[in-house]
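User: two proteins, same treatment. go.

Assistant:
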Amino acid sequence: MEEGSGKIHAGLVSVYSPVQKITGLLWEIYPISLKVYILKFWQKIIRALIRILIVFNYFTVKLIPFKAAVFIGGCLGRIVWLVFGRERAGCVENLRKSFPEKSENEIAGISKEVFMNQGKNYMELLCFPRLKKNRLNKYVKIQNEEIIRKALDGNNGVIILTAHFGNWELLGAALGTNGYPLWVIARRIYDNILNKWLINLRLTRNIHIIQRGESPKEILSVFKRNRMLGVILDQYSSRVPGVFVDFFGRQCYTSNGLASIVAKKDIPVIPCFIVRQKQGHLLCVGEPVEPIRLDDREAEIRENTQNYTKVIESWIRKHPSQWVWMHDRWKAPKIA
C-alpha cells in the first residue's frame, strides 16, 4: 500500500473504530424486533441513496467529456478502495491465495487497480447512450470477429463464454452495436426500479436480458433464431445446479448450465474477453472450445465445466487487475 494511502486509511480507522465499538455494545442490548426494524429501515435508506446517486451520476456524466468521466470513475474506485475496508480485505485475501508468488506490494497494487477499473466500468456504463457506433468502434476494437461470423453460419446459434472481466458490459455493447445482438442470462438485482433501468440501458446497445429463473424456452428460442447467448461463468450462486471445479488451485462451486446445454445440443462455445488498455479496449474472440464427449453424462458435464473455468482463469492470470476479486468466488453452498 502506498505511504499516503496508508496514512489516510489509518486516520479513517482511528475515527471509525470507537464508533464501531459503541454501536456494537448498543446493538447487543436491542430486542430482536427492534433490530429487524432498524435493518429494514436502513435497507430502504441505502437503496434510496443508491438510486439518487445513480440518477445524479447518469445526468451529470452527460455534462462532461467522455474521457473525463472515465477518469473520474477511476478516482471514485480508488476512494472506494480506501474507504471500504471489508471489500478491500476480501480482494487482497483472494489475490494472496491465488498468487502466492506475488509480494505484498504487488498484491496491494493489483487490488487498487481492481477497484479503479470497476469505477471506470461504472462510468462507461452510464455513458452507453453517448457511445454511437462510430465512437464505440474507435473505443473498442474487435479482434478475430470472423470467428463469430463463421460460427453463426452453422445456423444453430452461438454461446459466448465470458466473465466479469474487463468491462463486460462494453463487450456486449460492442457486439450488439455491430450486428451481433446478444441475449444474456442475468440475475435480477435487488431493486426493481434499478433493475428495469439497467435492462433498458442495455437494450440501447442491443443487449437483451433473460432473467434467471425464466422459462428455458427463452434460451432455446435464442438458438432457434441463430442468435448468440452470453454466459458469464465466474460467479458463485447457490440457486443454480452446479459442480465443484478447480479455480486458481481451489475448489469452487460453478453452474453446470452451460455444459448441460452443450451436452444436449451441438452449439459452438466461443470465448470472448474484453481487455482494458491505456486507450480504449480490445475485445478478443477466441476459437470455439472443443467439447469433451464421454459416455458418463455427469462426468462429461463436470469435465466441460472445468474446461470452461480453465479458459476464464487463463485470462484472469494474464490481466489479474481486470477481474472482480472482491467477490467471494470460493464460497461453499449450504447443504440442506
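Protein 2:
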Amino acid sequence: MTALTAAATLATAPLLAGAAAAALTPLLQRRRVPLPSPSVTGLLIHSVYDKPQLNLSGISKNTFGEILDCLKNNNINMITVSQHTAPRSLSRGDSAGIIDTDTPIQITSTLPKTAITFDDGLSSFYDNAYPMLEERGIKSTLFPVAGLIGKRGDWDVIGRPRHITAAMLREIADSGHEIGSHSLTHANLVWLNDDELIKELRDSKSILEDIAGTAVKSLSFPFGSWNKRVWNAAKSAGYENATAYRGHRSAPPEFMPVFGVYRFDSATDAVSRAIDVGTLQQAAITPAAASPSLIPPLSIQSATSKAFASLMSHFCKGTPLVKFRKTYRLFPQPSPPALTSSERS
C-alpha cells in the first residue's frame, strides 16, 4: 500500500463508517416514541488542546475560553447533569456557574441554562479545560472511561489518547465537578449481551465512586448508542440520569440531550446549540448586554447548527463499526416495546 493510498484510507474510513452508523442507528434504537422536547440541552466536548489536533472532536483552548465567557457573561445558569432532574429548586438570584454539586437541584430560574459535559476523561481535560473552568467558577460533568484511568485508550480511530489518573480524578471531584460514567471499556452498550452490559455499567460505577469518593449518578453512552434495554440496565445498576448524544426526540425525562462541539466550530456555533434563541429573548438578554462573542443567532442558524452537530455525531470519535469487538453481537437485541405513558411518568 502506497503512502498516498494509506492517507486516503485514513481520511475516508471515519466518513464511510460514520455513514454506515447513521444508517444503522435507527435500527438499533427503534420502537421508541417521541417525547416532549426538554427545556435544557448541554454541550458535549471530548478534548481541549493548545492547538487543534487531527481528531475532529478536539477544540482549541481559545475556542473553549470564548464559549465559557460567552455563557458566563450572558448570565447563563451552568448546571451539572444530575442537577437537571433533581428535586430542590434554585432561585433566580443564584450566581451562574457556582452551584453546590453535592446538593441535587432542579433549576427553576427563568434565565437560560445549560451544562458542559466531557466524555472519555482524557488528560487534556485536566491539563487545559479544568483550569479554565475553575478560573471562571464553572462546574462541569466529566464522564471518564473507568477501565482506562491512568492509561492510553485503544478504542478510538485516530491515536491513543492519554486518560486522567486516579489522583487527577479525585482532585476534579473534590473541586465540585460531577463525575459520571462513560462505561468500563468504551464498548457500544447496545451491541453487548446482558451480562457484559451489566458489567460495563456496574463495574465502571463502582470504580469511579471508589476513586472520586462521591456517588456516580449520571451516565454517558459510548458512541451515543442507547435503547430502552440499555437504559433499564443502567437504572438497575443505580444510575439516575444520562446524556443523549443521539436520539434527542425520544429521550426520557431523565436524559439531558447534548450537542457535540467540533474542531471547526466557533463559540457562536456552540452556544446556539445549547441555548434556544427564544429562551434568550425571554430572559431579556439584549445585544448591548451580550458578550462580544455571542451575536444573537437567528433561529435558522441555531436549527442548522444543531442539525449539523447531530450529523457529525456519526463521524467523530469513531463508530461501532471501526473497532468491532469479538464480543459484539452481529444482530443487536432491539429495544423492548415503546414506553407507555405510565412508564414515562
